[in-house]
Each structure stands twice: as structure tokens, then as C-alpha cells.
Amino acid sequence: MRKLNLGSGEYRKEGFVNVDYYSVSKPDVSHDLSSFPYPFTDSEFDHVESDHCFEHLPNPFAVMREVHRIAKSGATVVIRVPHFSRGFTHAEHKAGFDVTFPYYFRRDFKGGYQGVEFACEKIRLHWFAQYYLKRSVLSPPTFWGARLLGAIFSFFANLSPSFALGYGASGWVVLRRWNSECA
């Protein structure tokens, strides 16, 4: 199984092809993810993950079209991004996301179908995301208290992610590359 870690940054994943441009951790492939096409062949990957990368890119829809090109039919795509309510708290964020992002890859979505199909399999919201980073800057009582509150908020939000506002959340979506072969 061929796996891609798109925008690996400082978090390389074992068993994945790690790709990034600005990373100091020396990714397997150095490539500017806002430059197309990516240096991979059509239908090369069975699994693609991207953790907190899409919000740094100027055109996430173009990135999804490129992911569609390099992912095999039926490939799993996992994307983790901050919710728009906290998405612009970082000076380098260029895009915000909410639970409607997967709709843009459904042929029947009149609000802006992007020309490539992905089937949405799961959406999850996490109020205390990236805890591995927060642990390094918060005192232990604050960290564990916030993690507990985050778990409670996440539980209720995930009862119906499309209903939850998601303020302050980070989320992830699991998609499956779709085309006529999958029908």
C-alpha cells in the first residue's frame, strides 16, 4: 500500500512518502504544494493524509483536484484542518473550513462542485486539537483541564457535526476518491 503525507512539516510519518517545501526536517520529496502538477504519477497512492496543511495553501480546491489525480480509485483521503472560527488565528492561514468542505466534491452540490468526486465517509470535530503542541506550552493542570473540556465539547459536537457550529474546533474528514469505477 502506497501512502502519502501531504504537507508533512516537522511531523514525518513512518511508511509514508512525506512531502513538504518549507520543512527543516528534510521530507522525502521537497515540493511547493501550491505548484501543480505534483511530482507523482496518476493513481499512485492508496492512502493520502494531510494534517493542518490545507489552510496554509492559497487554493485548497486545486489541491483536492491534484489529490484526486494522484490517488487511486477508491483511495482513502484524510484531511485535518482548523475550523474557520479559529482558522485565521495563525498569520500564515489562507483558507477557513467548516463541515461543508466535502460537499464541494459531490456532483449534486449546486453550491460549487469542483469537478472531482470524493465520497465523504466521516467528519469529526475536536475542540482541543493538536494536544501534542499544547502540552509543550500549557501547565499540566491547564492542559489536562482543557483536554477534558475539549473531550466533552467534542462528544456533543460529533452527535451531529453538520449541526454543530464548531467554534474553536479543529476537524478532520475522511473521504474516498470516487469516479465511475467506484459506482
User: What's the Cα radius of gyration?
Assistant: 17 Å
Stretches with pLDDT under 50, minimum 5 residues: none
Estimate the global geometry from the Cα principal axes: globular
**Which strand order does the major sheet show?**
3-2-1-4-5-7-6
Q: Can you count the helices?
A: 4
The largest sheet, given as strand count, sense and whether it forms a barrel, is: 7 strands, mixed
Proportion of beta-strand residues: 25-35%
What is the helical fraction, as a range of percent? 10-25%
Kindly report the average pLDDT value: 84
CATH topology: Rossmann fold
Give the end-to-end Cα distance, rounded to a whole number of Å. Answer: 22 Å
Structural class: alpha/beta
Give the C-level CATH assignment: Alpha Beta
CATH H-tier superfamily = Vaccinia Virus protein VP39
Q: Would you report the number of β strands?
A: 7
Defining traits:
alpha/beta; Rossmann fold; 7-stranded mixed sheet; 4 helices
Written description of the protein model:
The chain has 183 residues and is an alpha/beta fold. The protein has one domain (3-182): Rossmann fold, CATH 3.40.50. The protein is built from four helices and seven strands. The longest helix is centred in the last third of the chain and has 18 residues, at 140-157. The protein is globular. The two termini are 22 Å apart. The mean pLDDT is 84.
Helices and strands, with pairings:
Elements: E1 3-6, E2 17-20, E3 29-30, E4 45-51, H1 60-70, E5 71-82, H2 84-87, E6 117-126, H3 131-134, H4 140-157, E7 170-178
